Amino acid sequence: SILLNGTDIIARDRRTAETSSTTEINVATEYQLNVGDYVEVRVTQTQGGAVDVEVNSKTSPEFMFSKVGE
Questions:
Q1: Cα–Cα distances in Å, from 60 out to 23, 43, 48, 56?
Q2: What are the strands of the beta sheet with 39-41, ordered from one edge?
Q3: pLDDT for residue 2 is more than 90
Q4: Residues 6 or more apart from 12 whose CB is under 8 A from it?
Q5: Are the CB atoms for 37 and 5 separated by under 8 Å?
Q6: Residue pLDDT, tens place only, 30-64
Q7: What's the Cα-to-Cα distance from 3 to each of 10, 41, 63, 66, rounded to whole Å?
Q8: Residue 31 contacts residue 10 (beta carbons within 8 Å)
Q9: Are 65 and 38 in contact, with CB atoms under 8 Å apart?
Q10: Residue 7 and residue 30: Cα distance in Å, rounded?
Q11: Average pLDDT, rounded, for the chain
Q12: Under a CB-based contact definition with an 8 Å cutoff, are residues 16 and 46 in contact?
């Protein structure tokens, strides 16, 4: 999920995890921020045991932010 100011979800990808392969998730949105706003990326899972976020130096995990306009 992408959270605005720590509370409001402004984008989400929700799915059941793959049991036999990697579950890949992409979340994207365009949202007009105000002065003082901040965003966070939150990853959670509820499938039981521990699940790792895989790191691949070319693709994951990544977070990108850009200003559009003015």
A1: 12, 13, 23, 5
A2: 8-11, 2-4, 39-41
A3: yes
A4: 1, 2, 27
A5: yes
A6: 999 999 999 999 888 877 777 777 788 777 777 88
A7: 6, 6, 13, 16
A8: yes
A9: no
A10: 17
A11: 84
A12: no
Q: Which two tokens stand for residue 19?
A: 């049991």
Could you tell me which residue, 19 or 2, shows the higher pLDDT? 2
Amino acid at 16: T
Among 37, 30, 38, 17, smallest CA distance to 66 is for: 30
6 against 24, higher pLDDT: 6
Q: Pairing relation of β-strands 2-4 and 39-41? A: antiparallel
Instruction: Please spell the DSSP secondary structure of 20-61, one letter per residue.
Output: SS-------------TT--EEE-----SSS--PPP-BTTTBS
One-letter amino acid identity for 28? Answer: A
Per-residue model confidence (pLDDT) at position 47? 74
